[in-house]
Amino acid sequence: MGRAVAWLVAAVVLVTAGCSGPVGGPKASPSLFRGATTKPSPARPAVEVENSRPGTTQWKLDRKGPNSAIEGYADRIAVRSGEPFRLFVSTTADGFRAVAYRIGWYGGTGGREVWRSPAMPGRRQPKPVVTRPLNTVTAAAWKPSMTVRTTGWPEGNYLVKLISTAGYERYVPVTVRSTDTSGKVVLVNAVTTWQAYNLWGGYDLYQGPTGFADRSRAVSFDRPYDDAGISRFMTTERAAVVFAERMKLPLAYITDVELSTEPRLLTGARAVISLGHDEYWSKAMRDNAIRARDAGTNLAFLGANAVFRHIRFASTPHGANRLVVCYKSVSEDPLRNRDPSDTTQDWRQPPDPRPESELTGLAYDCFPADAAFVVVNPRNWLFARTGVRKGTSFPHLVGVESDRLDLSYPTPRPIEILSNSPVQCGAQRRTWANSSYYTVDSGAGVFDAGTMRWVPALAHSKRFDARTWRFVEGVTANLLRAFAAGPAGRTHPAHDNADQYSHGGQASSSD
């Protein structure tokens, strides 16, 4: 659905390097993070060993500046360790360098430098290309700036920091993906959602120059991220990755693309963790997650609004699965007559409605939301050692989008409602928000936080007080530790209380 582009044959500047510090850096061991064990993997260092290496805070941006000052993208969303990727960089400066940081705990520093380029000549790349009629924006005329070798890079999430000679900085995210998830907790980067909100070039899946009508119907990974795009990792995923690594769990790392394209990848996985804002799902993503759940793999959704938009993938000149197609309207989708099961309206809408609650347990309900998280089921194992009682509340923890129990949609049973929060949704509507836990016959447990602010609380956002930080950390530690041990429903079966909260009411019996 595009045109051939000649820039794919452009010359590439080869850059090779590897930079890793010695083992022996700082690590924390408070009681919250004790109890998990890690078996070293022959394919990579154990997470505990990796995080004992010296970390740095230099991964943070010091001087962001305007997009045009320096920006770039990679021609691979995810690579296996040792595979190369190309960087496409545009800058108004006469030169730049690139530094790759692996994101993790590292004694609280948050990252480790694993590679840096030599000084590179800068160039201002051509303007964005908009392809009609889908209003797809790409950097189609850009020339590659360098090839990056990832030899020796451990699996994980990476931010490649571009630094211009003028001192401006921007990120290019890359995942060094796992090829084996057996026995591991799998962290999934929601790259399709990052791209859906990426307004670089003036178009995303929500708006174009005049608003919703001329939005993109397909968005490409062949372009840099703007602030709205990269913030999906920074604010709703990064802190959960750091927290999981701090717990020394056996971890694996993938993106939405691998979840969609590799149905056997989750074989033997202990848990799959949707890290935060994970809105855009393909049919194969959903099918593979359900298949894993029904084989005993636990699932956790550490956000809200998950599995809400139906997408499909297509190719770009850089390769397969680099175009996210989402018309948001069945009448516009050319598949409406040929394959109505894969048209790209919301999942809960006709012609083949499959509400998100079938997988998450809850239904997306509100934006904008701002409410306290109110505990109604304090005896649930997820709240162990948090000190909560029925009615304990945590101000502002529910928002800015929220989920709730809605039994008019298909809902797995037994499902246990953990919190019940009155919500004023915008200026007009009163509703409620929930968090939940359900179990299935395979023994798998499924948790839905029901709020987009769960991971920001793990990041110690100033929106919340320290009491809220400690609560979210305690629940998340209980969750990850149990999920890493195997099918959680075998030791922690859900005790159904859905009927008591189906209309937002408070349960009359003691929980």
TrEMBL record:
Segments of this protein annotated with the region Disordered: 30-54, 334-358, 488-511
Record-annotated N,N-dimethylformamidase beta subunit-like C-terminal domain positions: 100-459
Name used for this protein in its record: N,N-dimethylformamidase beta subunit-like C-terminal domain-containing protein
UniProt organism field: Actinopolymorpha rutila
Biased composition (Polar residues): 499-511
